[in-house]
């Protein structure tokens, strides 16, 4: 474990805007999003944090974006290292066990967050100290067009009524 404050540089020192096979036929050199998807990063292998969470690859090749994606994992690692040095091994282990328990909870109400996302749980946000922050992913979850699930519908589905 290290006391790194800023994530390590994981980008290459050179930049190319894309291979000729991914460019649009009418505009060579311009990446064709309709045919190839959302950027060349979709072919990369996703990285994981020390807790096993998947870090989604950045959608562009800018060097700063890769660092911003791993910023939270680096900060969490530094926090756990400081706790280990201050209180001993028990504190980071206890916090890790609490986070694992919250993530593997059997049932979470849809009103508290969606089941599939990484920051889906209010409980997890509280344990990680992120309950006072409002991020882009908290507002725009990708589920804006879905109909809201009522409490009664959710309880009926949970109790198999």
From TrEMBL:
Chain intervals with Polar residues compositional bias: 10-25
Chaperone recorded as keyword: yes
GO biological process: proteasome assembly
Region span, Disordered: 1-45
InterPro entries per UniProt: Ump1 (IPR008012)
Domain of life: Eukaryota
Protein name: Proteasome maturation factor UMP1
